[in-house]
Amino acid sequence: MDDAQTLAPAGTGYAFVPGITPQPSPDELRQMMLAAGIPEEIHGKLGPLGISPLTAKMGIVFREMTVERMVATMPVAGNEQNAGLLHGGAHLVLAETLGSIAAVLHVDGRKPVVGIEISATHHRGITEGTVTGTCTPIHLGGTLTTHEIVMTDDQGRRLSTAKITNMILDPDRRT
């Protein structure tokens, strides 16, 4: 893919150019977040880019967004590795997206959170359809959160299991 090509996340009408961080207008950002299933009451809690450009490019759409349970879907098409299977890294992008936003919701957007560890076990491959990620908390603390994310196929079969730990940062502390 050369620099002149763009990627348009499904349903957004907004294009991405590889190597360039998008700078959507406030209205474009709002439309992108709504297209991704993010309720308006959460928009201001997700940081300056709102929905991450990678999340939009991969076609991730949120279905549930609470502290207790986050659910999102992602198409296999466009997210495969060279053998035609869903890329293992795509599993991790879905898992990190769900776990990180769940941590943001835990602190109600009042403090920044950063991922400090993620791991996954891949149980089976998938070549078509939709992947559903379901994220539930293992630990919700004041400085760390840990979530389990289970990815399943359209028949409900487990594809992978991931675990992510996020650190809740103190915005007044300088590193």
- Domain count: the total is 2
- How many DSSP-defined strands? 6
SS content category: alpha+beta
What is the N-to-C order of secondary-structure elements (H for helix, E for strand)?
HHEEHEEEE
Q: Note poorly predicted spans.
A: 1-8
Distance between the termini: 38 Å
How are the strands of the largest sheet arranged? 1-2-4-5-6-3
Q: Can you tell me the CATH topology of the largest domain? A: Thiol Ester Dehydrase, Chain A
The main β sheet shows up as: 6 strands, antiparallel
Outline, from the CA principal axes?
A: globular
Give the amount of beta strand, in percent: 25-35%
CATH superfamily of the largest domain: Hotdog Thioesterase
CATH top level class name of the largest domain: Alpha Beta
Q: DSSP helix count?
A: 3
Cα-based radius of gyration, to the nearest Å: 16 Å
What's the helical proportion of residues? 10-25%
**Second-tier CATH architecture of the largest domain:** Roll
Q: Provide the residue-averaged pLDDT.
A: 89
Multimeric organization: single chain
Written overview of the protein:
The protein has 175 residues and is of the alpha+beta class. The protein folds into 2 domains: 1-57, no CATH class; 58-168, Hotdog Thioesterase (Thiol Ester Dehydrase, Chain A, Roll), CATH 3.10.129.10. It is built from 3 helices and 6 strands; from the N terminus they run H-H-E-E-H-E-E-E-E. The protein has helices at residues 26-35, 53-57, 88-106; strands spanning 61-65, 70-75, 113-122, 130-140, 144-152, 158-168. Strands 1-2-4-5-6-3 form a 6-stranded antiparallel β-sheet, with helices on one face. A hairpin with a 4-residue loop joins strand 1 and strand 2 (70-75). The longest helix is centred in the middle third of the chain and has 19 residues, at 88-106. The radius of gyration is 16 Å and the shape is globular. The chain starts with 25 loop residues before the first helix and ends in a 7-residue tail after the last strand. Residues 1-8 have low confidence and may be disordered.
